[in-house]
Write a structure and sequence with these properties.
Layout lengths: L2 E12 L2 E8 L9 H11 L2 H7 L8 E7 L8 E6 L4 E2 L3 H13 L9 E8 L2 E10 L2 E8 L3 E12 L3 E9 L3 E6 L12 H18 L15 E5 L3 E3 L2 E10 L3 E2 L5 H13 L8 E5 L5 E12 L2 E10 L1 E12 L19
Parallel strand pairs: 2-3, 4-6, 11-12, 14-16
Antiparallel strand pairs: 1-2, 1-19, 3-4, 4-5, 6-7, 7-8, 8-18, 9-10, 9-18, 10-11, 12-14, 13-14, 14-15, 16-17, 17-18
């Protein structure tokens, strides 16, 4: 075997969602900020994402995080989030997995009972508190980037559905939020296939009819996720609800989704459904949960917004070395529309 490339990756999952972490094989990426570096990879170096996430090495149900040195004066380390079809400015589940991998492999020194560290994501600075015990990262709580609402109770026209009332918000990614019950969904595992198909149709309609651009980061634009929101219940000390986030190119997030939880909190606050400091438990389609709350009210480019914290736990699943033989006919993999929905 004559190797052309070798990438070291730690396998990690949070709430059932696989978000692996690159720990070796990539020296650095051009650019001053993580957003610069993300845009470089997106526009000039996308072969790395395709190599790791496309078949035959990768899967549509996973993400990859690239850990890099940060030049930001507040940050200990930076990371870039690569999803199956695109790059994300921020992701809560990927943050939790990246922190867990950094601490449990010794890339960042673990302090018990709490390790404090600051990450630079493409979408901004993320402060983290990791609960640690007996050499394990037990849970990760992070303070997300500022989140805000683009539109409330907006009526859009969706092929096959007709008129649909939705909300649009930024939680680290741009979301269209849909009342699941209004469409007859209970967000149960048997609905996963249909939710994924319908969610992609709703996303495409919303992206066209609700144009969105982050007021401070114009490179972050266009609705790219659909969140099906379940009924909201009062529980001791706060609220609880179920949700299902559809990740392009058309599959369900297995975790409760950190940026989706953040976008939903922004909408809930704007509608008077939750107060700062009130606990919110968000449940995924497979029953895993994140705990969240609003810790700050702020403005984002003149828009009212919030800063939420999200807490969850991740587990290392394995250690991998992905290699490229120079004679391999699929150096950046391939996709087929049987499972990579929407790929032509």
């Amino acid at each position: 075997m004559k190797m052309k490339r070798m990438i070291n990756v730690v396998g990690v999952h949070v709430g059932g969602e696989r978000n692996d972490v690159i720990t070796g094989g990539v020296l650095n990426v051009p650019g001053k900020t993580m957003l610069d570096k993300m845009l470089y990879l997106q526009n000039e170096g996308d072969d790395l994402r395709r190599f790791l996430l496309h078949e035959p090495r990768g899967s549509v149900t996973q993400c990859i995080n690239l850990v890099l040195p940060s030049s930001h004066p507040e940050a200990d380390v930076g990371f870039i989030i690569m999803e199956a079809e695109f790059y994300a400015a921020m992701s809560g589940s990927n943050t939790i997995c990246t922190v867990t991998a950094l601490l449990e492999t010794g890339m960042f020194p673990m302090q018990e009972p709490v390790t404090h560290l600051t990450l630079e994501a493409p979408g901004g600075i993320v402060k983290v508190e990791a609960a640690c015990r007996d050499g394990k990262c037990v849970s990760v709580k992070f303070s997300n980037v500022p989140c805000f609402v683009y539109a409330l109770d907006k009526v859009i026209e969706v092929p096959g559905i007709g008129s649909l009332t939705v909300d649009a918000a930024y939680g680290g990614m741009n979301y269209v939020l849909v009342d699941a019950a209004a469409l007859g969904y209970g967000i149960t595992p048997d609905e996963a296939g249909e939710l994924s198909e319908v969610g992609e149709i709703i996303k495409a309609a919303a992206a066209e009819q609700i144009p969105v651009v982050h007021p401070e980061y114009p490179d972050i634009h266009t609705i790219n996720q659909t969140l099906f929101a379940g009924p909201l219940f009062d529980v001791d000390g706060g609220k609880r609800s179920k949700n299902g986030v559809i990740v392009s190119p058309g599959r369900l997030d297995r975790s409760p989704c950190g940026t989706g939880t953040s976008a939903r909190l922004a909408v809930m606050h704007a509608k008077g459904q939750i107060k700062p400091g009130e606990r919110f438990i968000h449940e995924s389609i497979i029953g895993s949960t994140f705990s969240a709350e609003i810790v700050e009210l702020l403005t984002v480019g003149g828009l009212p917004g919030i800063r939420p914290t999200i807490e969850g736990s991740a587990w290392i699943t394995g250690f991998h070395q992905y290699v490229l033989d120079e004679s391999d006919p699929f150096p950046t993999g391939y996709t087929l529309s049987d499972i990579w929905r929407g790929i032509k």
